[in-house]
Design goal:
The protein is mostly helical and 306 residues long. It has 15 helices and no strands. Helix 10 packs antiparallel against helix 11, helix 12 packs antiparallel against helix 13 and helix 14 packs antiparallel against helix 15.
Length: 306
């Protein structure tokens, strides 16, 4: 997900002492490397659901470079994940809508200078899509419609990009799945704008994205786990959720999905173990998820009693 590739390449090929500002170039390279390292650290903290640490680093990076949309994007994902996967609180919705608006503002400026940056295209399309989901759930229909309309141009751009890039692959996979689930009687709406999709194609793309060595693989697995649950394909959800927990054992959301997948697949005793971990960790941002875990734990424990 690197930006300014041409600039960094120029820095790397410049030999020390061959240019009067070689020292400045080295300093710029060091600053870039440090920024990327800190960003990777913050993203890892985000996926661990160590959100206090993640937010602190994202905000520091925003102060260091207010032109890079990535720290803004990932900071906005904290309230989105809380809303979408845990409690659907109005507070979390408002926090996400505010932070995503700032991320979109920065992303638009980035797109003006680098129109074909795949990471920014995906982030912008994702932000508008997530805003549409949250606004519709909160009955803010004007915001939902505006988000859908605004995101359309990014969707068209995304669909025309090469799937060699994992960011593009996951975006196209989600789009295909979404379009493939539209009822047959309403598909004329999508035909009018020249877009179509296939649900099975979408799943295959997400599965492929899940195998890639990228942060995108975690997002792809999370989406797959959610979609498989929606379709009651619990054995497949279990496979994906187990992989997520193997990669990110501290993540409370992934742990809860694993517990639910185990329970739905008939592995109640194993589910109890993971529900207990969710409850014991008592994540300060995910109290609603802890309460759900407590409910399932109490139910399964009572069911197992002689």
């Amino acid at each position: 997900m690197s930006f300014n590739l041409a600039l960094i390449t120029a820095i790397l090929i410049a030999l020390p002492g061959t240019h009067p500002d070689a020292g400045e170039k080295r300093a710029e390279s060091d600053r870039y490397s440090n920024f990327e390292h800190q960003l990777d650290t913050a993203i890892a903290a985000f996926y661990r659901t160590d959100w206090d640490k993640a937010r602190s680093i994202f905000q520091d990076l925003q102060e260091r470079d207010d032109r890079d949309p990535r720290p803004y994007f990932f900071e906005s994902m904290v309230p989105f994940w809380k809303y979408f996967f845990a409690d659907e609180s109005t507070e979390a919705a408002g926090n996400f809508l505010d932070k995503s608006e700032k991320a979109i503002e920065v992303g638009k400026k980035r797109m003006e200078s680098v129109p074909d940056d795949t990471t920014t295209v995906l982030m912008m399309g994702g932000l508008y899509g997530y805003r549409g989901l949250v606004a519709a759930s909160e009955r803010q229909y004007r915001t939902a419609v505006r988000s859908g309309t605004s995101g359309f141009s990014y969707t068209r751009k995304l669909m025309g990009m090469s799937t060699d890039n994992p960011d593009v692959l996951i975006g196209q996979g989600v789009f295909h799945y979404m379009m493939g689930t539209i009822p047959r009687e309403a598909r004329w709406l999508t035909s009018m704008v020249g877009l179509s999709g296939n649900r099975d194609t979408g799943v295959k793309m997400l599965e492929e994205a899940a195998t890639m060595d990228s942060h995108t693989s975690t997002d792809a697995r999370m989406i797959l786990a959610y979609l498989y649950h929606q379709e009651e394909r619990y054995e497949e959800a279990l496979r994906v959720a187990a992989h997520l927990v193997d990669d990110w054992p501290e993540n409370v959301i992934f742990r809860y999905f694993l517990a639910r997948s185990l329970e739905k697949s008939g592995h109640e005793s194993d589910a109890v173990e993971h529900y207990r971990i969710v409850v014991d960790r008592n994540h300060p941002d995910l109290t609603a998820l802890r309460e759900k875990g407590q409910e399932r734990l109490a139910y399964l424990t009572a069911s197992a009693a002689p």
